[in-house]
Amino acid sequence: MSIARRSVLSAAPALLLGAARGAAAQDYPTRPVRVIIGFAAGGATDIMARLLSSRLSERLGGQPFVVENRPGAGTLLAAEAVARAAPDGYTLMYASSSTVITPLINRSSTLNVPRDFAAVAIAQASPMILVANNDFPARTIPEIVAMAKAQPGRITISHPGIGGINHLSLAIFMQRTGTEFTLVPFNGNQPSLNALMRGDVNLASDSPFATRGLLEANRIRPVAVTTARRSAILPEVPAFAEYLPGYDVPFWSGFIAPRATPPAILDRLNREVEEILKLPDVLERLRSFGAEPVGGSRESFQRTIEEDWRRWGEVVRQLGLQGG
């Protein structure tokens, strides 16, 4: 038998396997897909997960993409469930920046997000926002920093939970400015903002979605957003970077899957999400949350996850935030 013929025959099984996987991806999904989210129902991330999942269902033969809320341990419970799931494309996670951060803070977790998950599609990025009680006298970042340096630990700032992006954005703020605040964690957005309105705390770090109605009703006051540029829906609110060059802490969300999920299925999901992000009603909904569509390749999203893992890992080590 010639070398060329042997090469063709030896390659045939791989070619057939590749063709079979491609065909499976074209037929996918043939049954309902679970989309697990680590937040309670009703928040911006939950709403986005449901919006995108319903569009995926419409575009992929009408098979349901069923969103399951599994809050707890800062999205860690949801992430661990997805990491253990069969890597067949029928269990996804609608993840966020917090999904990367939580295992880094929780010493008991063995989860390694870049290793244990495959990126599918990043959907959006948005800032967090620092807001103030209306009676709090300091109105700008420089005024808050000056007050904090004069009275270390006196200013209180609430946030929706230990280990989330809000918590770390505040930790970086303190590190960059050499200040000390008393950080007060709550179990979710609404309890944190209720404490702010009651005057139990001076400031709160939260999302534009959670705070927008209160800002419009003048029940709280905006201070600054955590991204390098101002938000399109809050253009009058300064960015932290205007006072602290290089400060940029965006919040992203998107789909990830168990690591060994077939690439052909991941590629198909990525293409579909890319098209969904172009739909006018989806764009309008995103921007109503203060978010902007991101999209892009699976590879670029995987790099974002890896970069966040390194970046936040260093912050957690420097600030001694690891526990659990």
UniProtKB/TrEMBL annotation:
Name the chain's protein: MFS transporter
Instruction: State the family it belongs to.
Output: Belongs to the UPF0065 (bug) family.
- InterPro entries this protein is in? BUG, Bug_dom1
Enumerate the UniProt keywords alphabetically: Signal
- List the signal peptide residues: 1-25
Q: Which Pfam families does the record cross-reference, listed alphabetically?
A: TctC (PF03401)
Matching Gene3D superfamilies:
Bordetella uptake gene, domain 1 (3.40.190.150), Periplasmic binding protein-like II (3.40.190.10)
